[in-house]
From TrEMBL:
PROSITE patterns given in the database record: AMINO_ACID_PERMEASE_1 (PS00218)
NCBIfam families: 2A0304 (TIGR00907)
GO MF annotation: an example: L-lysine transmembrane transporter activity
UniProt entry keywords in alphabetical sequence: Amino-acid transport, Membrane, Transmembrane, Transmembrane helix, Transport
Protein's cellular compartments: Membrane
Keyword Cell wall biogenesis/degradation attached: no
Name of protein: Amino acid permease
Length: 708
């Protein structure tokens, strides 16, 4: 760790500070060397920041332009329903195309873009020239046609009943997807291949492997995950089907449709600031330790051990709490599925006892530990399948449920109805709205998994950040679609929340059940829909155990956990198997308080949101304060916007920590008290006490495990 390592535009810490040096000069030289490796001499002035680069694409996408000019088409073909539901569908799939292009762009950053990529990816000599020629001319003509198309705005706006757009406009619409498909086909050819060698790596070297050695660690885990697999783990843990389904009752109770519809974007926007800041740090320090390692490197030599200790324990306990809450939620959903399948709450259905539910929970955790004991190639497959299941599941449910329902809510109800009948004694609209945000914020957690998987991800300094940002972005899009689809099938909020209904007060289960029963006379279709959600929650728990185990592996590797030498061992498949089973066991133990009191259990689980976000915020806080002047970013960076985005992230976490600690019911009694501040405060006191009494004498922060 004492040695300085340099690579591209960033370097290792020397003591408590980073030295902003690079081989041959500043960060710009790295880009120029990269361009020369691709065969070009730098001729254009390299002066655009990340914000400027984004601004060019954002201005060309221009939602005002596209929606305005083709609003007539949307009205003609399906109208409002097509536009409202079609937008997240097209958006999600477009983001898939963008991710594929981003991966290739990272390997070949040249102005030629698509046509250059096609040449380099199409088996070189035989097909390269033809692929380049075809792609290049498709791009050229479609861009020209698109520009011409924009001049037809008056024509399309004033003649909505006709479909005779000028031929160049029609060609633009046809060729624009064609150029996207060309890049998508290229991506499919290289999705599992190593990216082009970087300027410093040489040959076929992996930038993540080289960077890990610079950070002081040897490669022990098998590095076999692609950017898609890295994204899949975070996306599966966020799992909008899991978070929204399990906390839909909270959303309905506090504000209802309006809070869920608009609050989702409020929480999503600020969550993205947290994700962007984490992605920037992850690009500089791509190690499985993630947050606690970042805190150590960003807080300076004096504070590194303490910062690392606090962040690490909040992170790992928060992750265990996430696994506990996810798998316990699945056990409860299985109970509801059994209840509805046997006649429902009002038809003599079987209501499982709390002991049966905890047995379900234990069986689920056992299976998750078994799956996570498999080689990483198997986990990669399960992770990608889980991401696909979550994506397709959202689309199926958001379309099927409101379509089947015989009675649907109006758009006015979905977008403007604000429910104040919460039976909690709270009458302030702002207070109600804030409490309703918990559904959204609880859902949008767990994306630090991409950071914890970086030691198993190819070119992790690039692909780790992509995994974090894309998981949040796609979740925001598909999650909003899911909320809209389900809420359009909502009619009677008090009945859905009533424990006397068929689903025992489980709101979404009742929505699904009633939608199919009202049309077909049987709720079996609704039970099948709940099965789709149950599988998604299962995969969420599986990915959560994966992330937990990597964090436990890294934390024990640095000697921070009791019996550290046991937990960081890897088996012959290069899997930290002891850490896997430890994570499953602790998550089971954290669920046991539910046998005595659900209030105690909810206090434990509250750490899943607030505790985890505190861990997210600490390294970002150090980045914008103690490390503001000496932080040297990796390949992904926010440029001059980094500090502003970081402060927005820190302030948001501070805000939700206070807001989610407020009482959720009045008058406050021992049964209605919000135990979140007690649980989080108790965790802080426990971690601080262990530091003062013991750890400060022996824990020195991250340590190298390199030989010699």
């Amino acid at each position: 760790m004492a040695e300085e390592g340099q690579r591209g535009g960033y370097s290792r810490l020397a003591g408590d500070e980073e030295v902003a040096t690079a081989s041959g000069g500043g960060g710009g030289d790295y880009d120029e060397r990269k361009l020369r490796l691709l065969g070009y001499e730098p001729q254009l002035k390299r002066n655009l920041s990340l914000l400027s680069n984004f601004a060019v694409s954002f201005s060309i996408v221009s939602v005002l332009t596209g929606i305005t000019t083709l609003f007539g088409t949307g009205l003609q073909f399906g109208g409002p329903a097509t536009m409202v539901y079609g937008w997240p569908i097209a958006g999600a799939m477009t983001l898939v195309v963008g991710l594929a292009m981003a991966e290739i762009c990272s390997a070949y950053p040249t102005s030629g873009g698509l046509y250059f990529w096609s040449a380099r990816l199409c088996s070189h000599r035989r097909w390269g020239p033809f692929a380049s020629w075809l792609t290049g001319w498709l791009i050229t003509y479609s861009l020209a046609a698109r520009a011409a198309h924009h001049t037809t705005t008056p024509h399309t706006v004033t003649r909505l009943t006709r479909r005779d757009l000028p031929s160049n406009s029609n060609l633009a619409l046809l060729l624009s997807p064609a150029r996207a498909q060309a890049s998508e086909r290229s991506a499919a050819m290289t999705w599992n291949k190593a990216p082009a060698a970087d300027a410093e790596a040489g040959g076929g070297g992996d930038t993540g492997h080289a960077r890990l050695r610079e950070l002081g660690y040897k490669q022990e885990l098998k590095r076999d995950l692609s950017v898609l697999s890295n994204f899949a783990f975070s996306f599966s843990i966020i799992s909008v089907l899991t978070g929204i389904t399990t906390l839909y009752n909270t959303g309905l109770s506090f504000g209802g449709p309006a809070t869920m519809t608009f609050g989702w974007f409020v929480a999503g926007a600020f969550t993205m600031t947290v994700g962007l800041s984490m992605a920037e740090i992850c690009s500089s320090f791509p190690t499985s330790g993630g947050l606690y390692y970042w805190s150590a490197r960003l807080s300076g030599k004096r504070w590194a051990p303490f910062a690392s200790w606090i962040t690490g324990w909040f992170n790992i306990v928060g992750q265990w709490a996430v696994t506990t809450s996810v798998d316990f939620s699945l056990a409860q959903l299985i109970q509801v599925i059994i209840l509805l399948s046997t006649g429902g709450n009002n038809g003599g259905g079987y209501m499982a006892s709390k002991y049966v539910v905890i047995a379900f929970h234990a069986a689920i955790l056992l299976s998750h530990a078994a799956i996570n004991s498999l080689p990483i190639t198997w986990l990669s497959f399960f992770g990608q399948f889980a991401a696909a299941w979550n994506m397709l599941g959202v689309f199926v449910l958001m379309i099927a449920v409101p379509t089947v329902a015989t009675e649907r809510a109006s758009a006015k109800f979905v977008f403007t109805h604000f429910n104040t009948e919460n039976n909690a004694g709270i009458h302030s609209n702002f207070y109600i709205f804030v409490l309703g945000l918990l559904m959204s914020q609880y859902t949008l957690t767990g994306y630090d998994a991409s950071a914890h998987m970086t030691e198993e991800t190819k070119n992790a300094d690039r692909n780790g950040p992509i995994g974090i940002i894309s998981a949040i972005g796609i979740s925001i899009i598909v999650g909003w679609g899911y909320i809209l689809g389900i809420t359009f099938a909502v009619k009677d909020i008090p009945y859905l929340l009533n424990p006397e209904n068929d689903a025992g007060g489980y709101a979404i289960a009742e929505v699904f059940y009633l939608a199919f029963k009202s049309r077909y006379g049987s709720g079996i279709g609704g039970i099948i829909c709940l099965g789709i959600v149950a599988v998604a929650i299962y995969f969420c728990g599986m990915s959560s155990v994966t992330s937990n185990s990597r964090m436990a592996y890294a934390f024990s590797r640095d000697g921070a956990m009791p019996l550290s030498s046991v937990w960081h061992k890897v088996n012959k498949h290069e899997v930290p198997i002891n850490a896997v089973w430890l994570s499953a066991l602790i998550s089971l133990c954290m669920a046991l308080p539910s046998l005595g009191s659900l209030v105690a259990f909810q206090a434990m689980v509250s750490i899943a949101t607030i505790g985890l976000y505190v861990a997210y915020a600490l390294p970002i806080l150090f980045r914008v304060t103690l490390a503001r002047k000496h932080f040297v970013p990796g390949p992904f960076n926010l440029g001059r916007c980094g500090v502003a985005v970081g402060w927005a992230a820190v302030l948001w976490v501070a805000t939700i920590t206070v807001l989610f600690s407020l009482p959720v019911s009045y008058p406050v009694t021992k049964d209605t008290l919000n135990y979140t501040p007690v649980a989080v405060g108790g965790l802080f006191l426990l971690v601080l006490s262990s530091w003062l009494l013991s750890a400060r004498h022996w824990f020195k922060g991250p340590i190298t495990n390199l030989d010699g």
